[in-house]
């Protein structure tokens, strides 16, 4: 399966694996990350709810990678890159702990990786299309 995926698809698929791992941790053993994120046992249900939504999103990312949904890849670049802006704002407003900025760097890194892969794929596709047009 991975061999037949494009480079951009692989970046989104690998990011989905990170999201699966994080979501299952939040769902099954939220106490592992709760103290790091500043949550107590009282608010543990919200960690599980976030884990559930993240699990659903991970399935969307994996399916889009398998199906070759390039428009979705571009969308993920913008949404993942914007997470750091939201987290920084929430931290500055005192709503979240600074660890969330560090965690959002994972999303930003994934977005940059996918963006670079998309640009590389586009250049290769243009070269291939251009050379075949010249030959025809």
Written overview of the protein:
- This protein is mainly α.
- Helices cover about 85% and strands about 0% of the residues.
- It has helices spanning about 5-30, 30-35, 45-65, 70-90, 100-135.
- The longest helix is centred in the C-terminal third of the chain and has 37 residues, at about 100-135.
- The relative contact order is 0.14.
Q: How do the helices and strands follow one another from N- to C-terminus? A: HHHHH
Category from helices, strands and their pairing: mainly alpha
- How many strands appear in the DSSP assignment? 0
Distance between the termini: 32 Å
How much of the polypeptide forms β-strand, as a percent range? under 5%
Radius of gyration: 18 Å
**Distinct helical segment count:** 5
The biggest sheet, with number of strands, parallel, antiparallel or mixed sense and barrel status, is: none
**Chain-averaged pLDDT:** 90
Principal-axes shape call: globular
Helix content: over 70%
Give the topology, please.
Blueprint: H1 7-28, H2 30-37, H3 44-67, H4 70-92, H5 99-135
Helix pairs in contact: 1-2, 1-3, 1-5, 4-5
């Amino acid at each position: 399966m991975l061999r037949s995926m494009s480079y951009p698809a692989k970046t989104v698929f690998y990011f989905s694996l990170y999201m699966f791992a994080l979501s299952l941790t939040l769902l099954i053993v939220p106490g592992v990350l709760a103290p790091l994120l500043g949550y107590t046992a009282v608010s543990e249900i919200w960690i599980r709810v976030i884990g559930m939504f993240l699990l659903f999103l991970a399935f969307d990312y994996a399916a889009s990678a398998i199906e070759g949904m390039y428009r979705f890849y571009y969308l993920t670049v913008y949404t993942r890159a914007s997470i750091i802006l939201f987290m920084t704002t929430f931290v500055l407003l005192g709503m979240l702990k600074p660890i969330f900025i560090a965690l959002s760097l994972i999303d930003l890194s994934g977005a940059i990786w996918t963006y670079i892969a998309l640009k590389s794929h586009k250049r290769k596709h243009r070269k291939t299309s251009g050379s075949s047009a010249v030959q025809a």
